[in-house]
Please model this.
Amino acid sequence: MMLKLKYYLTAAILLTLSACSNQLSNKVCFEKQCIDVEVVTKQEDVMRGLQERESLRKNSGMLFVFPKRGKHSFWMKDTWIPLDMIWLDASQRIIYIQNNVPPCKNDPCPSYGPDGDSFYVLEVNTGYVKELGLKVGDRAEFHIVDEAQS
Model:
């Protein structure tokens, strides 16, 4: 009887932990609005970005983390969905925003980016920046659970 109880208790704990771990995700928050993000750190993943994806879930995005600050410009080659792009500095403050960046259908594709240096770039569905009223100088808060998503 005691062995059976231990078994059920262990199974219940494992199921609970499994359910909780599915709820853990990387997030970027502005004030009280958070979005789930894929964190991209490897150069080959940075180059691929959101290419060839047909959609991006509401309240989700991709956070690019660079090893050092620099002028990180982006293009939309083979990206099928329009995006808002947000560049952030080391203190996670917005330094530049590019709204409603359209997919690029023909080469050469234009590049987008700030004149200044950034550490991070956040790509989100077009309209997200306007919906939240984000502006240069606003600060993000990162809640990173797993940096090795990509």
